[in-house]
User: Fold these one by one.
Assistant:
Number 1:
Amino acid sequence: MNYDIIIGLEIHAELKTKSKMFCSCDNNAEGKEPNTTVCPICMGHPGTLPVANKQAVEWTILTGLALHCKVNELSKFDRKNYFYPDLPKGYQISQYDLPLVYDGYLEIDNELIKITRIHLEEDTGKLTHLTGKKYSLADYNRAGTPLMELVTEPTIKDAQTAKKFCQTYRQILRYLNISDADMEKGQMRCEANVSLQEKGKWEYNGNCEIMPLGDYKLNPKVELKNINSFKAVEKAIEYEIKRQKNALNDEEKLIQETRGWDENKAKTVSQRAKETSADYRYFPDPDLPPLEIGAQWIKKIKSQLIELPPEKKKRFIEQYNFDQETAEILVSDKNLADYAEKVISELRAWIDSTGDSWERQKTKLAKVSSNWLISELFKHLNCDKLNIKDIKITPENFAELIALVYQGKINSSAGQKILEVMYKNGGDPTHIMKDLSLEQIDDTAELEKIIKKIIKENKKQVEQYKSGKENVLQYFVGQAMSATQGKANPKIVIEIFKKIL
Ligand SMILES: [Zn+2]
């Protein structure tokens, strides 16, 4: 049987506002004792009243605008009722039928993934279940943290696209500086709905629903939870597709359920039969007035939009001729993208000052710059687990290093040595080059002397070369390099060898 794979995503992200969603408690509980950043409001004590956090509302609208969503002129908060020990109120304040923003998209690999809605709610507390104990521990520091939930239409067709969506969304949240979105810390949580339907037996109603055609009965969807990394997003979905396919082929009955991803066993395990929204008995929160979002307010929020990774990537490719992969790496972190652009603009100023044409040189210079950033500088950064914003090398000095390499004043091994010094202490690469006497030797007369000596001492290799073994040349170049401590200009060395031999 042939099946269509149908995947939808729900992504929660904690917003890093100063205070919580509906009270003035500190929203940053990192390193704090359990149950110390709580108050009667987030604990749901009788007689307290919530007040919505304006910043959280604005950031959610901002995220919506970044993702081409429409803004609801009238939005409201609703109560989602259920009992669980991590929810002190007995209900969660969320949004049901009037989310802040709706109907947007995010482009992944030239495909528009439609976004149904983004709404705002409050996070729950954290439970710790101790092995061998008859009780669990509850920490309510997280209860009431602003939580933004994005829901996509179920139109994603493979696990890799789902993973890429999550990654790009996180980049956007970080660019906007509204969430650290660290999956390991639970600041961003991705859930996926996965189902398999027979080809041609269903249609999509454009409103987040899959509809059966004729008398076809839809196969149930499974909600995947407990996914703690981007890799796990892909692996869990892939596992689930395989599991459902096998079950359908064997005519086993699938049920609508929630399954958790078990990283160690690399499989999904059933957690509970899935409840429907009717079970939560949503109703408007009587303590919170509806939100009227006027054009003026939206305009003000829109003015905070900056260039985001998808657009930046396109521009980088257009402007500097980067390949897809390089552009993707460079825009993955705003600090890195900004740094790279500063380096390139320094190089442009340098080329302009020499009277050369930037248009003619830019592709090569951008490529050399990105190579040195991504392969060489990242070696050091990864080793020390540092971000580019923490380094001592100014973009001006980095650009100068690139210029030295580009002009052939140093070879790449000298460049690496200089970079290492710059990485440790900062400083001017030209000075370091002189201090370490790493300047490339391209004085032809000096090199000729050295090369004549090598030819004299290697009669056998000379014979081989003359009898047509051209690759012996590499051996000669190696000899010249070691005679000059790696400082000889290899291009000139080759020319001289060819000329003499
Ligand atoms: Zn509170």
Number 2:
Amino acid sequence: MLIVFLGAPGAGKGTQAKTLATKKNLMHLATGDLLRAEVTAASELGLTAKAFMDRGDLVPDDVMIGMIQARLLSTGSGGVLLDGFPRTIRQAKALDQALTTTGMEIHRSIYFEVSEEELVRRLAGRSTCPNCQRAYHDSFNPPQRLDICDDCDEKLIRREDDRPEAVRNRLKVYETQTIPVLDHYRHAGKLVEVDGEQSINAVQSDLTNAVE
Ligand SMILES: [Zn+2]
């Protein structure tokens, strides 16, 4: 059984993936972790990937697919939860192709639906103290005084990437790439959409139903 998780950054995939993997005895294959592990292990694919990363380039799809394929083959018949891949329609099609050699098939592609407003609320609004490095968040963990560290009265700093406009731009790119991926799985009859704005437990219960 192969389950694919799809969703924007901040949609809560990572947290839910860990819980579902434990509950359903699936191997949680987070492609970011896989990539780091292969680079650290200096495997052939890892070294190829590192050469691209060192130049500041994206790791090509065929290298990522190669790593995923090798890992799927090594897991035998166990279930796998794939988290973080595919992100583009090209990757989705390449994954389908690669799966034919592993004898595995995608059982469900689960999309975490979260509104842009909620994603911006979750992703933007982070700040840190330049003095003690204490982290704050406007909605979840605000300082007592606006933009001032509770511990050392220092003015908090905000990363350019965490500004609402920058977050909105990242989400736009994500959305543009993802819509064709969702259509691809919808046409294959494999797409399940889960309301990612519910409580953690409600999302988990929807996920459990979706994979059964
Ligand atoms: Zn401080």
